[in-house]
Amino acid sequence: MWYTRNFDHLSTEAIVEAILNYGDFDDVKKIISIVGIKKTARIFKKQLGHWRVNYDSKTINYFKLYFKKYAPSA
């Protein structure tokens, strides 16, 4: 998402993906406070279901565990 100048047209999904992949934990906390933990978890899980996944394997493992603990019903 840092590669664009048109931030107004970024989807929530694109922002969540960029932050979970490349942001630090303060960025993650900020997006969760804005979007909500359940919605963030649903977006993440939906993105994992796509044919092409852009997340690093360590990121996938970490956030699967994180959302399982903090948003189990998402």
Secondary-structure content class: mainly alpha
Rg from C-alpha positions?
12 Å
Percent of residues in helices comes to: 55-70%
Main β-sheet: number of strands, strand sense, barrel status? none
Q: Uncertain segments of ≥5 residues (pLDDT<50)? A: none
How many helices? The count is 4
Q: Strand tally, please? A: 0
Basic shape: globular
Average per-residue pLDDT, rounded, comes to 91
Q: Provide the β-strand percentage band.
A: under 5%
Terminal residue distance = 25 Å
Order of helix and strand elements from N to C terminus: HHHH
> How many domains make up the 3D coordinates?
1
What's the short story on this structure?
This protein has 74 residues and is an all-alpha fold. It has four helices and no strands.
Index terms:
74 residues, mainly alpha, 4 helices, globular
Q: In words, what does this structure look like?
A:
By secondary structure, this protein is mostly helical. It has one domain (11-70). It has four helices and no strands.
Furnish the topology, listing elements before pairings.
Layout lengths: L11 H11 L2 H11 L1 H12 L8 H14 L4
Helix pairs in contact: 1-2, 2-3, 3-4
